Backbone:
């Protein structure tokens, strides 16, 4: 089960402090490069204008913690990188508990969870901790150490181009900006790495453009530099996030909802889990926000396990690799997306080579003795032929027959090998 | 509440004997002119051929009543103009009860109601009375006085053109041919007068063509003279009838059912009363019969309160300004149509000024601190932007978001003021 | 009731041993020719290549039976032609019961039924018998006589062309290859013969091409020779099979499901039996398989009573003219298809001769006295006019009004006679 390998890889990435910029992003890309040696790591300087945005300063954390009046060290960043509000500016000093409280974040409804908080675009510092721990804090004077740097550095992202038989591209993206959380978002990084590994070994009909970007600013930056080139090449794609828990399958459409990615995603999920959750574009929240924005409009849908915002551990320290993300969960996420990619690869249009039905009996494809039941035995192959009219795609045929597209691949090979149909 | 003013105006018009021609029509138009001084009153001579029809003679009533064998005066037109069958020809004489009965109309199932009966195109005289009263009539000789004139005069209708920024027109029509009945049809006259009053004070994007016509022959006559001119200008409109009771909201489509008027009417009503009644074209019965007839095909839908034919008091003396039509009912009718007009005025197409999402945070339109909940807080404005693609109209966006269009007006202003979107 | 005549004709054809070739086919066509003297019988030599197929040898049966060890003659072809597997090759000899069993066919679940079995394209001999009889067979040596000929002869089919006012054609087909079974398929032959009899006496708008072909190889052969000619002429048609029992009505669509034949079939059946069975193209099984195959794509739908494969007596000796097919059943099948043909004949597009509604009152088509109820009395004719816009076909109007199309024929005549509408 490939899910085990993916889970092991996720564990390796777990401790790295990812954010939208900084060494954690580079360390993550370096780990991915071991599996995907052709991954190209790009760098964009801080302050670069990208559409309506500006690439932010690079953020580096040396250490961050609080010393309580009793002398205990708490909220230690080196123990859990969620303790520090993302993009905290440096601060060192002694402050009262009353003052400190303005900088502390907890989730009163989830007493054991450390929340994940960032302040990318407003200069602040802050700490996150469990509400249980917060409630034990005493009055008095606290020593604060936020030893961070914010400086004009660079924003990084990874890109891998796998050439196929056609220049037409399938676009796959995940986000590498979340620190130690598992479903959102070590799962996407790990699953996409293993999908890319499969694709780089495969003989593909289409080319694949695979990007590992910090969410929002990363995809915006990527599009700023690449949209013109990819706009007419990319005809399908998926945003790969939240693909690691084993509780549900989910689909989030592209903005227009009618791309080949959408059709395939719905088809695959319907036959993977008939109770899969069908979200609307209004419930979006990841980089499809950019990829599908007006005039960008790339054909990007999302196949997920349990979607961001839809599970209690979301954006907290409880989103871990033990209780939430599992090898089985990752395995399911990997195969759903792989089946979707395979479906797009095999979604061709065929034409019967004969007018009228061909004589299947003489080819051993139809029972020679005609009884009450003979039609049923060859119904599937006869139904496929009846739709090979140069118009229906294989996906359309599978939908019409209400069967998983993968159950047709072998029949199509038989028909092609008998010269009964031709691919257009 | 503007419904009070509308109700007072209806009370003023109540006693006038409206028919398809005659002084009652002119008196009604005169009363409307006090509020709409630019209303133009048109006159078309009797016997004028209009399409397949001929403008009928003008009808004038001096007096009409019956003297019973006991000497009582009953069915007195001066007490209730419904007593006389509309377009009754003159008659004076003594007749037996047996003979009289052929000229009397009642509704046995509604014993207290005087029915509303007309005979526009066949020469007859007759009286209407409650079945209760009819049952008390004695045998013997009755004296009949129907002192009416039918003569080659004129047919009148009112027309008001309010110029807007565009020559494109919205067409509003009501019918002025019903005598003293309230929902059908003092309500339409009164509500449309007050809508026109609002429009003549307003700075409108579109021009408004507002007509007050006798039903059927009036709209046919109007179209005979004006269809060629208005056909390419009118892109929306409503027939304003039965808008005065407070029991329900209703929608009757245009013939094709897919005009902007239809879309807006359904949208407004859905968010005004989720149980609004959706009638079919087959249940039509007012001037949409002409406006939407083949090749005329003006985009006219109807927003009504309780539709003609759908309430027990319909076309009887029970359809009054006390029990049936109320200030609240008129107020609801006025605002539903006004909101529909406003929706058409504001139903523009917008385009985002940026590729990808704009950075809302720096404009104070998005929370700076990213927590589990930050997406929800700005979901509405982000959703609007995501559909500003130069393709979706504001109505389409409201339908997609499943919110009343009027909840978007302010957000659109904010986005325009921040230069984030442009109107196409 | 024409069903009686059709049933009598079916009884006359019952004993003939029909197969895909041979004297039984010619005898059947000869019997049909008595009613349809212009029927042309075509002959195609064995071994002719038709698309992917080859016309098989002709099959003739002199006698066929089995003598049991006790000396009883069983499975006698002269008593029931189902006893012999269709296209059995000749065999004469003595064999053990164990050997014989490999050549015997029964239906264990239907102990009294002789199954109908054929082996057209593989050389075999065999007998069919009831499972009851099979279970009584003793051990020992059996004498087998299968005195048949398979030789290069001919394949026959009948074709009747009835010229109408237009060259556009309606195509009607049935299959003549089944031996003594009633619903599948004496019913189709008999009903189509009587439909053709009606059409040859009628003044038709369209031309009719009516074919009687052996199933599969016959329709393929017919298309091989005629497709080019008929492809652009045939705009509608029906495959007439299983139209003889009185248990249900059924519809099987053309491959694309949206032809005029489909629309008419569904309309007629909906108003004939609101519980009619709506099958899918995936449940096909007769010559629509060829007529609607890719690139052939003739607009052929099926109107059936109980469909092949959907009743227990299907393809057994129980499918008879006593218990399964009845005069009432055939009558219903005949009239459903006749109504469908009439609907296509009358499915014209009309245009109102006037802008706005015409004045019906002066033509006696609308009540002169306008009361609460007057609209209902003329609702049907007014609704028809309102859709005579040069765009809606009569079928579309009937669907919109949700009434059987045949209830509109008289109204259309009235409107045409008053010069209120014109046919386009």
Residues:
């Amino acid at each position: 089960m490939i899910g085990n390998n993916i889970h092991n890889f996720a564990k390796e990435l777990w401790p790295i402090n990812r954010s939208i910029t900084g060494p954690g992003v580079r360390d993550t890309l370096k780990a991915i490069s071991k599996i995907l040696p052709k991954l190209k790591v790009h760098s964009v300087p801080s302050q670069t204008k990208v559409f309506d945005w500006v690439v932010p300063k690079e953020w580096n954390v040396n250490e961050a913690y609080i010393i309580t009046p009793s002398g205990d060290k708490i909220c230690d960043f080196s123990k859990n990188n969620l303790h520090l509000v993302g993009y905290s500016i440096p601060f060192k000093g002694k402050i009262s508990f009353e003052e400190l409280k303005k900088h502390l974040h907890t989730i009163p409804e989830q007493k054991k969870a450390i929340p994940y908080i960032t302040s990318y675009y407003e200069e602040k510092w802050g700490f996150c901790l469990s509400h249980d721990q917060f409630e034990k804090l005493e009055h008095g004077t606290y020593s604060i150490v936020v030893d961070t740097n914010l400086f004009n550095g660079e924003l990084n992202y990874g890109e891998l181009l796998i050439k196929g038989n056609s220049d037409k591209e399938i676009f796959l993206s995940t986000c590498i900006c979340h620190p130690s959380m598992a479903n959102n978002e070590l799962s996407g990084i790990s699953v996409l790495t293993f999908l890319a590994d499969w694709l780089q070994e495969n003989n593909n009909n289409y080319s694949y453009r695979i990007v590992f970007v910090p969410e929002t600013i990363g995809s915006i930056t990527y599009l700023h530099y690449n949209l013109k080139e990819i706009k007419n090449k990319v005809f399908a794609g998926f945003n790969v996030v939240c693909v690691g828990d084993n509780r549900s399958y989910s689909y989030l459409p592209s903005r227009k909802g009618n791309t080949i990615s959408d059709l395939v995603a719905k088809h695959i999920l319907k036959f993977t889990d008939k109770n899969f959750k069908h979200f609307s574009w209004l419930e979006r929240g990841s980089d499809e926000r950019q990829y599908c924005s007006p005039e960008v409009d790339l054909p990007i849908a999302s196949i997920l396990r349990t979607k961001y915002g839809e599970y209690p551990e979301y954006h907290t320290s409880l989103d871990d690799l033990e209780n939430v993300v599992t090898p089985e969960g990752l395995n399911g996420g990997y195969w759903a997306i792989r089946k979707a990619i395979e479906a797009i690869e095999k979604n061709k249009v065929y034409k019967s080579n004969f007018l009228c039905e061909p004589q299947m009996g003489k080819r051993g494809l139809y029972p020679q003795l005609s009884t009450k039941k003979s039609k049923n035995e060859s119904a599937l192959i006869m139904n496929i032929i009846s739709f090979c009219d140069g118009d229906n795609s294989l996906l359309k045929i599978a939908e019409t027959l209400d069967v998983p597209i993968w159950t047709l691949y072998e029949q199509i090979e038989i028909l092609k090998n008998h010269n009964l149909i031709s691919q257009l």
Chain B has a mean pLDDT of 96. The radius of gyration of chain B is 26 Å. Chain B is about 30% helix and 20% strand.
